[in-house]
Amino acid sequence: MRSGRSVGWGLVVLGLLASSGVSRAEEWVELGSRRVAEGAEKDTIPVAAAQAGTGRFDAIKLEVQERGIELLDLEVHFGNGERQDVAVRAQFRPGESTRVIDLERSDRVIERVVLVYRARGRRDGAPIVRVLGRRAGAAAPAERWEDLGERVVDFGAERDTIPVTAREGRFRRIRLEVTDNGVEVLDLDVRFVDGSKQDVAVREHIAAGGRTRAIDLEGAARAIQHVGITYRTRGARQGKARVKLQGLQAEGAAAAPAAPRGGEPRWELLGRREVAFRAEQDTIPVTASEGRFRRLRLEVEGNAIEVIDLRVTFGNGDEQDVQVRERIAAGGSTRAIDLPGEARVIRSVRLRYKTEGRDARGRATVRLFGAD
Questions:
Q1: Are the CB atoms for 45 and 113 separated by under 8 Å?
Q2: Would you give per-residue pLDDT tens digits along the chain (372 residues)?
Q3: Over the Cα atoms of the chain, what is R_g?
Q4: For the chain, what is the domain count?
Q5: What CATH number has the domain bearing residue 330?
Q6: How do 69-78 and 57-65 pair as beta strands?
Q7: Distances (CA, A) of 256 to 166, 214, 223, 260
Q8: Residues 333 and 256 reside in one and the same domain
Q9: Are 249 and 347 in contact (CB under 8 A)?
Q10: Contact assessment for residue 290 and residue 370, using Cβ atoms and an 8 Å cutoff
């Protein structure tokens, strides 16, 4: 777990909590808190005895105070000796909270929560992390999950794709259900109809008959084209597992419009640049095409990179600034970035960014794509 990297500020949904505390109407209860140790990588928040026996909880979330923190993983330990592992891999500023983390069962007492993390920011203080629990039975009415597609995956294989064939709606969450054999799901990459992609670190062992947590999708609800799965099956060598993809539509979401020109946008490579470790900005000259474009996308190889913003220079000399604020894992890409106005010739794109990693010689290769 120590080798995990943080996902982009946009790869998770961050909830801001009011300074006066958690709304009673939502039935959230503070279970415990801790000022985590400076520079440590692991710490434990015991659940206060006064709360441990007051009822069962079906979800938790963490709130960060006073200083930023990078959470990598959580372990929820229950009174009966069982535990649930959760991959978080996200950065949080003071006052921000994690997504709602659903517990696999609501009939167990929570004993403690173990954090794997890195503290961020100044070194004159350590973050305070609060654990909040949602009482079982206080959740919103049952949500209607829709079957989007399924795939029978082979034992020992490492990757497969589930095309979305059942629905053309817009979805804000997905999850996987598994039958016939256990599966260890490592990662997902969600490809949307607009050509953008979201990478999700799952890291969950799913027993036959079980399912993953609900996975929030970035931004507004969007139409999904397919979901790639990196996994390992578990059980007999000749075993197979059936993996079903389900989606939860946003309330009031209209049916998704058809993709432009009958399918996924045709992305064209415009240029590439090897960017230096910890440099602040660089420019990608557009050398590969003289076409006209109304969308851009960046793909990254070799090292993770945090893209802060872009400055697009067009063929007539006009410039446009685009705020991105996305962390892109190695092998990942940004969302599709819409440019206002008509499609135009692009001469160059200047990007402001931060690369990641401990090796000062680290670099990342950034490829620029355009689509009409």
A1: yes
A2: 333 333 333 333 233 233 333 333 457 888 888 888 766 678 888 887 545 555 678 888 888 888 888 888 888 888 888 888 887 777 778 888 887 888 877 778 888 899 888 765 545 567 888 898 888 765 445 567 888 888 888 766 678 888 886 555 678 889 998 888 888 888 898 888 777 788 888 878 787 778 887 888 876 667 888 898 988 776 555 568 889 999 887 654 444 443 444 455 677 888 888 887 666 788 888 865 567 888 888 888 877 888 888 999 988 888 888 888 888 877 778 888 888 778 888 888 998 887 765 444 567 788 888 887
A3: 22
A4: 3
A5: 2.60.120.1380
A6: unpaired
A7: 13, 21, 6, 12
A8: no
A9: no
A10: no
H/E stretch holding 49: helix 49-52
| DSSP string over 217-275 | PSSS-B-EEEEEEEEEEESSTT-EEEEEEEEEEPTTPPPPPPPGGGSS---EEEEEEEE
Domain that holds residue 274: 265-371
Give CA–CA dist 321/284, Å, rounded: 15
Rounded CA separation 223/258 (Å): 9
Residue at 1 is within a domain: no
**Contact at 8 Å (CB) between 222 and 191?**
no
Q: Which residues contact 359 (CB under 8 A, 6 or more apart)?
A: 277
Question: How far apart (Å, rounded) are the C-alpha atoms in residues 162 and 212?
Answer: 15
Q: Nearest CA to 48 among 1, 112, 93, 4?
A: 112
State the pTM of this model. Answer: 0.39
In a domain, 141, yes or no: no
